[in-house]
Specification:
heterodimer, A: alpha/beta, ABC transporter transmembrane region fold, Rossmann fold, six-stranded mixed β-sheet, 10 strands, 9% strand, elongated, B: alpha/beta, four-stranded antiparallel β-sheet
Chain lengths: 618, 586
């Protein structure tokens, strides 16, 4: 039973409520067994002609009282236990989220969000079923059975009891035997439904391709195939469930037939009183439900042990990235960022993602990082944010190892923009002020100005209070990224990392945003911010103090834009390709300068184009 | 009023489907009546046993045994009948739903692209999957339970009336009481249940979003704030479930209590009658048993009202879809010309919504084998021209003529086989690589698929997959890189070999290796075809025979790369802006 510790400790914690609940539920079941007994007694008295009005009144009063009492105790007990069950779901879900909050991205690489959510949803519910329904049904079933057996043992002939109860006692076994099979088959038919839904989804989403190739008939054929599978799987399910739903009544009826025939004969022989006979027929019908539930409990216990194990595993995971033990440097992050000979391999793999990376970034400077997908750019950002642990001594802030800072200090000191411009489905304001408990509207508006998204936001139905996502507006990729950059700026941290976060923004807006950011930086008093811009588009980094070109985890070229163009290497090739010019066409000279004069008047036009697109997107 | 109309139209759609199964449904009905009858006869038998065989001075033992044996036979039969009847009903339901699903899907496939552009894919998918499933529930749950519930209610009433009319009528007074209580609770329960589902959705949605954005939470050091927010939602959910649970328990217990009180009342009046000798004891017994059985059918019936409601909504949506008529129809005298690949746009205009034209009076002639590039901002009309050439949409004015025949006079299948498209996001289906390339058409040989892959240089990466060509692509090929997916779509083009190829050029990918392979593949694929390219970068378009610059639905400039540069017009400006990635901003 060690696998059930999660549940037993919870029950022990609330033992008083559980005990009260269990007692109440059991009392209710015992009382339920009394009513047929009373009817039996009435029958006996009637049969013997000894019943009078006063007796009758007494019986009626007793039935009313017993009925009321059993309903009240059953009601109360169930409410207590079920409520505790629901509190358990709440507690487990809270603890899961607490745990997940502390786990590093490495964990989320290994586990899909969908799976985790499914655990929080279904496994937790199964545990709840065990605690609330399982306990209630087990004890009420047991009590009902015990009560009936006791009353029968003292009143009724044992042979009759055996004949009547035998078939009914087999119901829990029936449930235990067929229940899991039915459940499994039901899952199969759900899966069949799922695969049909997948086909439909694929076809509808790819309808252009389907129509373009004129392959509607092929697609219809595949669809019919899955529909037929559904029918087959469902029929299998139906066969099993029909077997169950016809066998259970059969067992009850069998008991009844035995009682009717055998009991009837016993009554005529005066071995059993008519009252017992009557009580017995009522017991049979009464026991049906508790017995079915009893079988159910057996299945719940079986099912929940797997769920409990999964939940326990989830709760016992340790984070890869935690504060180092010992005394940490409890001071704000500042000074020069220095990376020296950084090698990095993802934990549990042996492919080196970063190899011998070195650079330094002083306050106020900007570093550009360029490279193809898979060249290690984003990994570098992850390491600087200590989402993954770098090797000792390879990353330092102000001369001190990154590993010696508490995570809280580190994360407070770095602002970051993710590649996809991930936003939460809260209001625009809350998103921009994510780093703040109390949103500062004015500052948020300033940040939105910097990232050229202010006008867009004002055009939303409720301005800065508009909800993002399904309930509110859907932002275009560029808008998302610009809000995410505003969120970074709002945080006002000494270090800033933009991880390919301008990719969905057109080049002229990109230029404007970077320009604004530089201006803000120049205006700040004291030491400026250190900025790292990661991009696959060269235009985003051309102003950087230094540009690193990454290829398969190594720095293959480095220098300023001008130096790299002159170098005529990978960077220069890319520059020409992205600009759509052959080298040596004469345009080259102009392009060496970060901003060619000819482009100036284009800005306006591009801005118009941009707003036009936005309207369209809206 | 609206409700009855909806019900009527639901029946109108369903009746033709039901008609085919009239016979079987009649069998189901008969079997249900028989099994309910056998079940309900129990108390009656006990009453008979008590009154006629047991309580008399000279009990008839053999009669009792005979009765028990007869009932034994009946319950065995009842078991078999229950089994058979359930299977039969489900079979009918599943067959009907199968037929509706296929009809619906067939119909949707016939609809033109306009339908898919106007309706979100989620809505269409819901229609085919969930709405039909709701119908399935209608047959298998609603119908089964309603038939059984109403028959048992009627039969209980019948038995009671047969036993004693006065007491039966008194008992019937319970029906409105039980019904009121049931309706009262069901109504509230439905509301609470909706609230629970709503809050569950919120809590789970929040959880999923936060797990996805966990790195952002950690980087911004906001774990505490988010935890608190999650707790709020989680607690709200808990409260709702506790309330829901209370309603369920209360309903259950109130009916139980009512049952007990009913028995007490019955005993008080009936018992008096028995003492006075105006009522036999057996009859009293039977009434006591029947009165408890009143509750179940009423409860079942009221619960099924939900299934009926959602079935009505579902049928309504299905019939709306079935009423959609395809915009693009094949002309009856359609006849395919010999395909060479000559395209003429003669004053072609297109409006997706009346009054909002996207293309204005486009004139363009493309000779067989010519390569044309289209440049312009998003919304300039590049894709719309492609929609016309493939006849995804029909022109609102003018005409599109391919090889001398108006596309509206082409057989649709021939047209679509003559015009191929390679899109930016490649559509892949769950299936093997081979099947994806030949679009699940077994008449295209595997050898041909392999040849195509080999000639565009896709074979090497395909063979690197776990099962080579037989690798099953999961989640629409998400395991492949964008470049690899693109290569598969090129192979598809080679296999289908259209005369005209539309290329929605993929965005730049910096990986120089793939880039080179892709460029070669494009070259190979476009050889010998009329090529229409929607350009996103200038580098690939320079070699085109003709470049059309589109602006607000008009061709504002046309010429070769050199000519256009010399003109110093729109094209020159685009070129000057350095990097041309206009589409990405959208």
């Amino acid at each position: 039973m060690s696998g059930f510790r999660l549940v037993t400790s919870y029950i022990r914690q609330h033992w008083f409520i559980f005990l009260t609940g269990i007692i109440m539920v059991s009392v209710a079941s015992l009382l339920m067994a009394v009513i047929p007994r009373i009817l039996g007694d009435i029958t006996n008295q009637l049969h013997h002609g000894t019943l009078n009005r006063a007796d009758m009144a007494r019986y009626v009063k007793i039935i009313c009282a017993v009925g009321l009492l059993r309903v009240l105790t059953g009601w109360g007990g169930r409410i207590l236990i079920h409520q505790k069950g629901r509190t358990l779901t709440y507690t487990l879900r809270r603890r899961l989220f607490e745990k997940w909050n502390s786990l590093s991205p490495a964990y989320y690489h290994r586990h899909s969000v969908g799976d985790l959510v499914a655990h929080a949803l279904s496994d937790v519910e199964v545990v709840r079923e065990l605690v609330s329904m399982g306990i209630c049904q087990a004890f009420s079933g047991l009590a009902a059975l015990a009560g009936v057996i006791y009353l029968m043992a003292i009143h009724v002939d044992w042979r009759l009891s055996l004949a009547g109860l035998g078939p009914i006692l087999s119901i829990p076994l029936l449930v235990k035997w067929l229940g899991p099979k039915i459940k499994k088959q039901s899952q199969r038919s759900q899966e069949a439904l799922g695969s049909m839904s997948q086909i439909v989804e694929e076809v509808i989403d790819g309808i252009r391709a389907v129509k373009a190739f004129g392959t509607e008939q092929v697609v219809i054929g595949r669809f019919i195939g899955t529909v037929d599978t559904i029918v087959t799987e469902k029929m299998r399910f139906v066969r099993l469930s029909s077997l169950f739903s016809s066998l259970v009544p059969l067992m009850v009826n069998l008991g009844f037939v035995f009682v009717l025939g055998y009991g009837g004969v016993l009554v005529t022989l005066h071995l059993v009183s008519l009252g017992d006979f009557v009580a017995f027929t009522l017991y049979i019908t009464m026991l049906r439900q508790p017995m079915e539930q009893f079988g159910n409990v057996l299945n719940i216990v079986q099912r929940s042990s797997a769920s409990i194990k999964r939940v326990e595993t989830l709760l016992n995971v340790d984070s890869d990235v935690i504060d180092r033990p010992g005394v940490l440097l409890d001071r704000p992050l500042q000074g020069e960022l220095r990376v020296q000979g950084l090698n990095f391999t993802y934990p549990g793999t042996d492919r080196r993602i970063l190899e011998n990376i070195s650079f330094s970034l002083k306050p106020g400077q900007t570093l550009g990082i360029i490279g193809a997908t898979g060249s290690g750019k984003s990994t570098l950002a992850d390491v600087l944010l200590r989402l993954y642990e770098p090797p000792e001594g390879s990353v330092t802030f102000d001369g001190r190892d990154i590993l010696n800072y508490p995570l809280a200090r580190l994360r407070d000191g770095i602002a970051y923009v993710p590649q996809d411009g991930f936003l939460f489905s809260t209001s625009v304001l809350e998103n921009i002020c994510f780093s703040d408990d109390y949103p500062d509207r004015e500052r948020a508006e300033q940040c939105a100005h910097v990232t050229a998204v202010y006008e867009n936001i004002l055009n939303f139905p409720e301005g800065f209070d508009t909800e993002i996502g399904e309930r509110g507006v859907r932002l275009s990729g560029g808008q998302k990224q610009r809000v995410a950059i505003a969120r970074m700026i709002y945080k006002n941290a000494p270090y800033q990392i933009l991880d390919d976060s301008l990719s969905a923004i057109d080049t002229s807006t990109e230029r404007q945003i970077l320009q604004n950011m530089r201006e803000v930086n120049d205006r700040t008093v004291g030491t400026g911010k250190s900025t790292i811009i990661i991009s696959h588009r060269l235009s985003a980094v051309q102003h950087a103090d230094e540009i690193l070109v990454l290829d398969r985890g190594r720095i293959v070229e480095r220098g300023s834009h001008r130096q790299l163009i002159t170098l005529r290497g990978l960077y220069a090739d890319q520059w020409y390709m992205q600009a759509g010019i052959e080298p040596g066409t004469g345009l080259e000279e102009e392009l060496r300068e970060p901003v060619a004069e000819a482009e100036r008047d284009l800005n306006e036009e591009m801005a118009q184009l941009e707003t036009g697109q936005m309207e369209e997107a809206a | 009023m609206k409700n009855t109309n909806a019900t009527r139209s639901t029946l109108k759609i369903l009746l033709p489907y039901l008609r085919d199964y009239r016979g079987r449904l009649a069998v189901v009905g008969t079997l249900v009546i028989a099994t309910v009858l056998i079940d309900l006869v129990q108390p009656y038998l006990v009453k008979e046993a008590i009154d006629t065989y047991v309580s008399i001075t000279n009990p008839n033992r053999t009669a009792i045994i005979r009765m028990a044996l007869a009932y034994f036979a009946l319950i065995i039969a009842s078991c078999a009948m229950t089994y058979y009847q359930e299977i039969l009903l489900q079979q009918v339901g599943l067959s009907i739903v199968r037929k509706i699903r296929i009809d619906l899907f067939n119909h949707i496939q016939r609809l033109a692209l306009r339908y898919f552009d106007q309706n979100s894919s989620g809505r269409i998918i819901t229609n085919v999957v969930s709405d039909t499933e709701a119908l399935n529930n209608f047959f298998t749950q609603f119908l089964a339970n309603i038939i059984r519930g109403s028959f048992s209610l009627l039969l209980i009433m019948g038995f009671m009336l047969r036993l004693n009319v006065t007491i039966a009528l008194y008992c019937f007074l319970l029906i409105p009481l039980v019904a009121t209580i049931t309706v009262f609770f069901q109504k509230r329960l439905r509301k609470v249940n909706a609230e629970v589902r709503n809050r569950l959705g919120i809590a789970i949605g929040f959880l999923a979003e936060n797990l996805r954005g966990m790195s952002i939470i950690q980087i911004f050091h906001q774990e505490k704030k988010q935890q608190q927010r999650y707790n709020e939602r989680n607690r709200a959910l808990m409260r709702a479930t506790i309330i829901e649970n209370r309603y369920i328990l209360s309903f259950f217990n109130v009916t139980e209590l009512l049952g007990d009180l009913g028995i007490a009342t019955l005993l008080w009046f009936g018992g008096g009658a028995v003492i006075k000798g105006t009522l036999s004891f057996g009859v009293l017994y039977a009434f006591v048993s029947y009165i408890r059985r009143f509750f179940q059918p009423i409860n079942t019936i009221s619960q099924q009202m939900n299934a009926l409601q959602s079935a009505i909504v579902a049928v309504d949506r299905i019939s709306t879809t079935l009423r959609e008529t395809p915009d693009i129809k094949e002309s009856p005298e359609a006849c395919a010309p010999h395909v060479k690949g000559r395209i003429e746009l003669v004053g072609a205009s297109l409006a997706y919504r009346p009054g909002y034209p996207i293309l204005h009076d486009i004139h363009l002639t493309v000779e067989p084998g010519q390569r044309i590039g289209f440049v312009g901002a998003t919304g300039a009309g590049k894709s719309s021209i492609m929609n016309l050439v493939t006849r995804f949409y029909d022109v609102t004015a003018g005409a599109v003529i391919i090889d001398g025949v108006d596309v509206r006079q082409w057989p649709l299948e021939d047209l679509r086989r003559s015009v191929g498209i390679v899109q930016q996001d490649v559509t892949l289906f769950s299936g093997t690589i081979t099947d994806n390339i030949r679009f699940f058409q077994p008449e295209i040989s595997e050898e041909r698929v392999r040849d195509a892959c080999r000639s565009i240089g896709a074979e090497s990466f395909i063979l690197r997959q776990s099962q080579g060509y037989d690798t099953v692509l999961s989640e629409r090929g998400s395991t492949l890189s964008a470049g690899e997916r693109q290569l598969l779509s090129f192979a598809r083009v080679l296999v289908f070999d259209p005369r005209i190829l539309i290329l929605d050029e993929a965005t730049a990918c910096l990986d120089s290796n793939t880039e080179e392979i892709l460029q070669k593949a494009i070259h190979r694929v476009s050889r010998g075809r009329t090529l229409l390219v929607i350009a996103h970068r200038l580098s690939t378009i320079q070699q085109m025979d003709l470049i059309c610059v589109l602006e607000q639905g008009k061709i504002v400039e046309r010429g070769t790369h050199g000519e256009l540069l010399r003109k110093q017009g729109n094209y020159w400006q685009l070129h000057q802006s350095g990097v041309m990635q206009l589409d990405e901003a959208a």
